[in-house]
Amino acid sequence: MNKITNNKAWFLVLPVFFIVAISAIIPLMTVVNYSVQDIFDPQTRFFVGTDWFRQVLEDSRLHDALIRQIVYTGSVLFIEVPLGIGIALTLPRKGWGVSACMVLLALPLLIPWNVVGTIWQIFGRADIGLGGYTLNLLGMDYNYSQNPMDAWVTVLVMDIWHWTSLIVLLCYAGLRSIPDAYYQAAKIDGASNWAVFRFIQLPKMQSVLVIGVLLRFMDSFMIYTEPFVLTGGGPGTATTFLSQFLVTVAVGQFDLGPAAAFSLIYFLIILLVCWVFYTVVMNAGKREEQ
Amino acid sequence: MTWMAWTPITAVFFTCIFLTLIGMGIWQAISPTIPRRGFLPLETTRGDRLFISLLGAAYIHLGFMVVSDASIWIASIIALVWLFLVMRWG
């Protein structure tokens, strides 16, 4: 029997298409236009070809910011994903504990970025902050505004505090969708806890984990507000990540051309990593199904 | 449209991209793609191959600018060859 396809449903996608066109595609096209010109004002602009790209690609400040960003994003994913899965596995499955845990876990997610930065700025201070004061009391010479390592760890811990809940909630949703029959079958087969995790829970969490990891990758790769409020990119340039460097160029120095060229390179990096990750995970999923 | 600061080259670039997308859409409607496996290490549809070749073309241009000061058109020619290779045998 031939399946009748009705393509009219595509019209329902049109509103989304227009919103995306206005909010993403047209601005992106404008950025491309800016990246090949030296713009002083809308009337005074000169075509410079690939000059800005070459300048940006040779900029050592950009290389440093990129390395910092990669290390930071790698650390965020490396800690948040296993931690999130671990917490999701230990959460209660029924009773009043479920709602209590959900509310507690959702709290950090509800706090705006700049407020998170301010909370940790105060929390980490050695004179009035609970965290900083306690660490110094324990004999550690902790000062995030002077020691690059302390600043780095503080920004990392802040992100883990803020966003691990997202992974937990996504994984928990994935875990809840597994029918009891799977666990019963595993019990009959005498499967170990590890086997249950590896062959039932992890595959069932795969699609939500892909979304979780992609969201965390993109968010942490574009992080701006929290380190900006907490450390201002310092001490020195220790916590100056890509987006902060970009804002310095675009808004601080008003170099729109180099900033546009840099934005496009930034965009291409994110696009490539997300595509590779998505393809690898989805192909692995397909292989397992076969 | 002046606020978008168009230049002839970027206008041609985006026109080509849009025409390609429309063309691919029509092609898909006339003869739907069948996923297949070429020299790329994954099964791809026609649209996948276009995406891979465009993303690859962008990186070819960036890579060329890093290693050479020569005219960017050389990179564009390499990218066109890459696009053809991926679309035909990818």
UniProtKB/TrEMBL annotation, chain A:
**Where found?**
Cell membrane
What is the name of the protein in this document? Answer: ABC transporter permease
What's one GO BP annotation on this UniProt entry? transmembrane transport
Gene3D superfamilies with a match to the protein in the record:
MetI-like
Stretches assigned to the ABC transmembrane type-1 domain: 66-277
Native source species: Thalassospira alkalitolerans
* Signal peptide start-end: none
Which family is this sequence assigned to? Answer: Belongs to the binding-protein-dependent transport system permease family.
TrEMBL record, chain B:
Q: What's a Pfam family this protein contains?
A: DUF2160
UniProtKB keywords? Membrane, Transmembrane, Transmembrane helix
Can you tell which superkingdom this protein's organism belongs to? Answer: Bacteria
The record's section on InterPro entries has: DUF2160_TM (IPR018678)
Q: Could you list the residue ranges that cross the membrane?
A: 6-30, 72-89
Q: Does the keyword Transmembrane helix apply?
A: yes
Descriptive protein name:
Membrane protein
Please give the organism. Answer: Thalassospira alkalitolerans
Q: Lineage of the native species?
A: Bacteria, Pseudomonadati, Pseudomonadota, Alphaproteobacteria, Rhodospirillales
